[in-house]
Amino acid sequence: MASLCGRWRLWILPVLTGLYALLIIILVPILLANSIKNGFKKQDQGALVGGAFVLLALPIAFYEIVQHMIHYTQPRLQKYIIRILWMVPIYAVNAWLGLVYPEGSIYVDSLRECYEAYVIYNFMMYLLAYLDADNHLEHRLELSPQVHHMFPLCCLPDWEMGREFVHMCKHGILQYTAVRPISTLISFICELNGVYGEGEFRGDIAFPYMIAFNNLSQFVAMYCLVLFYRANAAALEPMKPVGKFLCIKAVVFFSFFQGVIIAMLVYFDVISSIFDTDNTDDIRNISSKLQDFLICIEMFLAAVAHHYSFSYKPYVNLAQNQAWWDAFRAMWDVSDVHNDMKEHLGVVGSSLSRRIRGRSGYQQSWGSATERTSLLSEAPLTTAKSAPACSFLGYNTADSGQILNSIDDSRGFVDLSPDMQDNNHNINT
After folding, report:
1. Angle 401-407-408 from CA coordinates, rounded to 5°
2. SS3 sequence, the chain?
3. Residue 117 pLDDT class (50, 70, 90 cuts)
4. Considering the entire predicted model, what is its pTM?
5. Angstrom distance (rounded) from CA 275 to CA 278
6. 20 to 30 A from 69, CA-CA: which of 52, 267, 362, 386?
């Protein structure tokens, strides 16, 4: 038994393949029988076609996940890749369940929406882990050309290259990781109270407001991700980042706007006749079914794209393989997410507090500030260049000289005026 477990890399894929084939043999006849029993309506046709694409997507995604676990040679990078690869199975199964059980789509969609933010977070952490392997990312950025803001935020002051730039990009992405679960919880509560109104655009329901809120938060996250890529394009070139960026942006960004566009088209009766429903005014079910059907198809394409963009092959024979349970444990261990979220909430809370108290309170509290980038090494606070970003909500490091003076004051190194120095000299004399 011990030798069999030790050779798990040889038999794990055949065993999983056999189990998956058994699942298909059992599941497909049941679905066909139910469809024939229901008269083979358009809803059943959509579930079957969408299910076929899901059955094609899952083995591709699981194959890549298992191969990364077999060749788990760079944990600091691969744990993020495995988390990203789980996006296809979660999205695909979630969308298919929405087709089969449309009345419960609001509940199963909550998992997909939260994992959407989780994927963006993990992609940013993957880039940081790749770039900061030698703990010199901030120093390299300080020597890099200034990256300016893009349209439509080109009027904002530039983020100083170095610690401030990494700080702002990281927390610009982390805010979406916090906002998305909160907005999903609010939507869930509104649905339970009958005031959510998915797919409807009226002022007395929560749906249009939640769409606008999520849209703004997601835009900030994707903007920070693109800005971070622009600043590190040359350093990221060996990892071929373009395909990886397109995979994340296409699945996360475009699927969100796809749902908004479909909801608007259905609401204005442009495509309301695609699905058979008992009530043609049931806008929520029509838009939700169409969105889920398209996601089932798109996840097959995403699985193929992930297979090439996040391939396991660069990690083969790079070092001694670790035990498979290390990869499995790292895949589900979210302690790093918990720590980064605590840091982000602390940054936002301290920034709001300084806004309320004003600049003087901000200067006094700087000596005990805990704002930092957890994945990056701490640099000594000696110059204005190495000072961390003053605030995620808008303070600029141009005031770092005043801040350093206030630190010196608080430590007792008070600048004396010439008159006071003369008096002090007379006293000593």
Report:
1. 90
2. CHHHHHCHHHHHHHHHHHHHHHHHHHHHHHHHHHHHHCCCCHHHHHHHHHHHHHHHHHHHHHHHHHHHHHCCCCHHHHHHHHHHHCHHHHHHHHHHHHHHCHHHHHHHHHHHHHHHHHHHHHHHHHHHHHHCCCCCHHHHHHCCCCCCCCCCCCCCCCCCCCHHHHHHHHHHHHHHHHHHHHHHHHHHHHHHCCCCCCCCCCCCCCHHHHHHHHHHHHHHHHHHHHHHHHHCHHHHHHHCHHHHHHHHHHHHHHHHHHHHHHHHHHHCCCCCCCCCCCCCCCHHHHHHHHHHHHHHHHHHHHHHHHHHHCCCHHHCCCCCCCCHHHHHHHHHCCHHHHHHHHHHHHHHHHHHHHHHHCHHHHHHHHHHCCCCCCCCCCCCCCCCCCCCCCCCCCCCHHHHHHHHHHHHHHHCCCCCCHHHHHHHHHHHC
3. confident
4. 0.73
5. 10
6. 52
* Residue owning tokens 């749906």: 207
pLDDT digits (tens, 9 = 90+) for 317-337: 755 566 666 666 666 666 666
pLDDT of residue 1: 58
Going by C-alpha positions, the residue among 254, 262, 263, 176 that lies closest to residue 213 is 176
User: Of the CATH numbers 1.20.1070, 1.10.10, 1.10.3470, 2.60.40, which one belongs to the domain with range 41-333?
Assistant: 1.20.1070
Domain ranges of the chain: 41-333, 350-428
Tokens of 110: 């909550």
* Residue 404 CA to its chain's centroid (Å): 35
Output the CA–CA distances (angstroms, integers) from residue 15 to 9, 10, 11, 284, 327, in the order listed.
11, 10, 6, 41, 19
Question: Which residue, among 107, 84, 75, 83, has the nearest Cα to 94 in the 3D structure?
Answer: 107
Nearest partner of 184 among 155, 153, 207, 201, judged by Cα? 207
Work out the burial of residue 282: count CB atoms within 10 Å of its CB; fewer than 13 is exposed, 13-18 middle, 19 or more buried.
middle
Q: How many whole angstroms separate alpha carbon 189 and alpha carbon 99?
A: 22
Confidence of residue 6 (pLDDT cuts 50, 70, 90): low
Between CA 389 and CA 397 the distance in angstroms is 6
Instruction: Pull the structure tokens for residue 268.
Output: 């204005």
